[in-house]
Amino acid sequence: MPGQLTAVRALLFVHVAIAAFGLVSLFVLLSASGMSLERVVEETGTSMGLFTLGLLFGVGVLVLEAVVAVRMGAGGRRTQTLLRVALIMAAVGTLVNVVQGSGFLGFALVVVALVLAETRTAKDWFEDTDSAGGHAPHRPY
After folding, report:
1. Does residue 92 carry a pLDDT above 70?
2. How far is residue 116's CA from residue 8's CA, in Å, rounded to a whole number?
3. Does residue 133 surpass a pLDDT of 60?
4. Distance from first CA to last CA of the chain, Å, rounded?
5. Which of 54, 123, 130, 133 is least enclosed by beta carbons within 10 angstroms?
6. DSSP class per residue in the chain
7. How far apart are alpha carbons 132 and 140 in whole angstroms?
8. Is 6 exposed, middle or buried, given 0-12, 13-18 or 19+ CB atoms closer than 10 A?
């Protein structure tokens, strides 16, 4: 796997870890504060349905990112497509956080990963591994 994709894999794992820590921290703080989730959501001016939808979207994206990061070594067009979908969904999710005033680091990580994943070397590697039956070719990148 080329160095750019190794960096993308590392960035995905870092992003998943940071976002998972943020989600867990939210619920730990809620528990410690004694406030109900309904009250916190009400204070933000968001409906419970929208909050739940956002939470499910975020968890789904994190799971997809983790699966793609683990699977990247196999290469191939399917993995490249999954990587693109995961990064675009993560960019949308983190952009929503940036608009709300947080998540700048997560957005930066996702944008850097997206740029690295779209380099010519990365695209060529995914194409080469697809035609090689899912195994990485034995050429240096």
Report:
1. yes
2. 7
3. no
4. 7
5. 133
6. --HHHHHHHHHHHHHHHHHHHHHHHHHHHHHHHT--HHHHHHHHT--HHHHHHHHHHHHHHHHHHHHHHHHGGG-SHHHHHHHHHHHHHHHHHHHHHHHTT--HHHHHHHHHHHHHHTSHHHHHHHHHHHHTTTS--S---
7. 15
8. middle
Question: How many CB atoms lie under 10 A from the CB of residue 15?
Answer: 27
Q: Which of 66, 59, 64 is nearest to 26 (CA)?
A: 59
Residue 140's pLDDT band, with cuts at 50, 70 and 90, is low
Does this model's pTM top 0.85? My answer is no
Distance CA 104, CA 8 (A): 18
Instruction: Give the type of residue at 75.
Output: G
What is the Cα–Cα distance from 85 to 114, expressed in whole angstroms? 10
Asked whether the beta carbons of 109 and 15 are under 8 A apart, the reply is: yes
Q: Which are the contacts of 67, defined by CB distance < 8 A and separation ≥ 6?
A: 82
Residues in Cβ contact with 35 at an 8 Å cutoff, skipping those fewer than 6 apart? none
Q: How many CB atoms lie within 10 A of CB 85?
A: 13
Angle at Cα 137 formed by Cα 136 and Cα 141, nearest 5°? Answer: 95
